[in-house]
Predict the structure.
Amino acid sequence: MHTNSLNRLFLKHVGQTSAAPLALEILRAEGIYMYSKNKTYLDCISGIGVSNVGHGNKQVMEAIKNQLDQYMHLMVYGEMVQEPQVMLATHLATLLPESLNSVYFVNSGSEAIEGAMKLAKRVTGRHHFTAQYLAYHGGTHGALSLMSDAYFSQKFIPLLPGISFIHQNDLSEIDSKITEATAAVFIEPIMGEKGYMPSDLIYLKAIRKRCNETGALLVFDEIQSGYGRCGGLFALQHYGITPDILVLAKGFGGGMPLGCFIADKKIMDLFQDNPVLGHINTFGGHPVSCAASLAALNFIIDNDLPQKALKNEQLFRALLVHPNIMEISGKGLMLAIDLVDKNYCRKVIDNCVKSGLLIDWFLYSENKIRLAPPLIIDNEAIEKISGIILENL
Ligand code: PMP
């Protein structure tokens, strides 16, 4: 169909999320590139932290095709023994700390957060939660309740009651905001939409300690930082801190929709009984998504992508030096360039997109540019990306 009419139909019939969608029509994507009819784009956002192993990754495509030949949906989640699910859960359990040994599969990040909230309620018998100011955990009602920014949540009230907020890296609030009434504390170890802000070790340690004292569960949302993006397979390895529940999505699906929350089987099994079917979903852990996820995981490990992300972080930091860049925050290939001024930042982003570089802003840090390319990126592409950004400053 002609591009103009497709664009018009997109705006008319596809539900919109803002008045200014990117509205690029991409015909094909491969590696770190997206191709429209007349233009090639260097993808520096990975579909917001999804395409960690690159677009059209051969191993992932192969795994998907093989699984398509076997079966797609068989039965609602949790009933049948499906090899891709079992192999993925088992592999994750071998890579994670011993207590993170039971994987509950869902379809998205928001759903995984909902599952983690429900599990924490079951485990503790409590219903208060603590989350971080300017964290993002998803768009469903439970996840939205964990959002501190009233602009995004106030039109959807009533939300869940009993939510407290703490500021990242502020030790002074931990004792008063995490108490014997708290079911769980939701933490992004490297905060995403706040503008790729890593936590201090001392802060995460203090939260872990306070959770142990009060019986609150510690939940790490590694939906953006996981699967190699932060320069470790998971951020929890950078910190050496084990949460009670780990939440994954985005890059976890290798480009397919998939989410999960991972906990100790001892607590996960609470969903089995009283009520039976305490948390259910139809498509969670779709066999094609799990096959893609397992192939992506193997690809990340075999190609040392977390280590490469750390090296590439250093190259970006060395190249992106300019008087208008105040700071580069983040870790691995989740980096944020602070340009201080929101309007200037928006102009730079728009001009970069016009120059064929797909970059983006953050929900809560509109003065920052998001750099999150596929982890397969090489030095030459990093030099090219940095060059385009510098030219547009
Ligand atoms: N948590 C974090 C840290 C996220 O970045 C996101 C998505 N941006 C979510 C949760 C929600 O995931 P989803 O969009 O798959 O529901």
The pocket of 4'-deoxy-4'-aminopyridoxal-5'-phosphate is lined by residues 48, 108-110, 113, 136-138, 188, 192, 221, 223-224, 249 (CB under 6 Å). The radius of gyration is 21 Å. The first strand starts at residue 28 and ends at 30. The chain has two domains: 3-56+304-391, 59-302.
